Amino acid sequence: MDVARIVGEIIGLVSIEQYGLVGVVSGERLLVSGLREGATNVYLYDRGRLVRLNREPVSGVARPPRGSGRIVVFRDVARGREQHLIYTIDPDEPGVERPLPGMEPARLLGVAYDDEVVVYAAATMEGVALYAHRGGGGTPEKVADLPGIGFVADYRDGLAAGIIARPDEPGRFRLFTARIGEGSLRIHEPPEEGSVTQLAIAPDGGVVYALETPRGARLYRAEHGGASGRLELPSPGLEEYGPYSFNYLGYTSRGELVAVARREGRSRVFIDGRPVEAPEGIHGAVTDWGGGLAATYTSLRVPPRVVRLPGGEPLVAGEVPGYVADALGGVGFHWVESFDGSRVPTFTLESRRAPRPGPAVVLVHGGPFAEDADMWNVFAASLALLGFHVVMPNYRGSTGYGEEWRLRIVGDPCGGELEDITSAALWARSSGLASQLYIMGYSYGGYMTLCSLTRKPGLYRAGVAGAAVADWGMMYELSDAAFRSFIDIMFAGRRELWRERSPITYIDNLREPLCIIHPQNDSRTPLKPILRFMELASEKGKTFEAHIAPDMGHAVNTIDDAIKLILPAALFLARQKEAQTTQG
To answer: How far apart are CA 355 and CA 489, in angstroms?
Structure first.
């Protein structure tokens, strides 16, 4: 095994610059977030050059009102434990950060603002609430408690809007609106069965939102004090496309609705319902700028970049080393039949460094309310570099394929979705893609890796579990209010299932080599349960290796974070593949 080559290639891969469009600020300049200079930073794109705004790396940046004279960013101040503070920056004073007065560190669940008010949702050990800071030297005020997990997404003229998931409606996502200064919180009942996935406050004060239903995704409009109704657009193109979900909603400077809709893991851009020519893949934020449109774009072969539409000409993009481009093979989308006749939407990324059939890794996404799509995935790219084909199943619980598919996981973790992942693995072998199978995942994907190795022994040659859940009961005891609500939602309140669906319960079944990678300061999937899993595995003579990523939390915000996760996984899998080759 050429360790030096692997290390060099992995470091080169994770160092590829990645960019995302945030919005347009004063002077009609683009605001861009970028994984550049070793971490996540915020930049102005002005006359062809990037100007860094923040002094220290950030965890995120809020979408600005168009033409805003300030930037709002937030930063973890607890070494990865996701205790955040908010800072404001004048775009004409790069490097000068002003902390939001009087704010206490808390887990942020969304930030929105205008030039006078900053609104945010935050979680503590006691609960989740909506807060507002209304300028001057005062402290943030609590607007309302949020019963469950609430995410604020937009703010305009005294109205805040966001999405909330409540334990009494497990798996459903509702629209909420709140009048700042009045303390009036309203949770809206949708006009049909479904969940809210994206929203934007219209220039006239109504809230346009995407509702993901069992029959696809539709756009509605709601008023804070009124009912919801279907949104009619000037052009029928969006409705004819028949989206499953939406990635983004917003408005142009002319008041036109921008909608990024997606189906089967790829997206299309629409302006007032009219399709816009754009490259195949996934698109994020879109705004009118410079006489056309600017947008975020990515695919499984192209790292995130900011492009000009129509067309897709790069505006801000990182360079992809030749050895990376040469290793990434064909991208495929497949419907894989599962144990109960359901069809599992599955992406594949083939490696040009592997034969066909060849070694393959089932790469399981986290969430579980998330999606593997035709978008850049540094884990998948690293596996292709190592000579593995990559199989990415969108198991039940995944977003992007309708409300009914997503809700099937609720009340049944490590149940039906484990069978979907197993079906994708077996399909990879029967289809002629895979000769040997491995499994890897991070967060909920790490949990699925442990479930697979302890509940399906013999299927995989080895597995990598990153930031995995090992014991639901212990995790609940260590979690804040947001993640306690998440566990209650996932199990639909069935706490009697916690032990049965915890991998630590089945540790006697562990047979294959396991690589455990876990952030030291993780507050979503805390370290203590996985340490107990490792202790029991050691007592029982199981084969595993463990890597505790120092001074890191669950989120990957720097290149160093990515290296701490990907490099030990890559070396472990390379050794396992070499051992299998040696054994014939």
So the answer is: 43
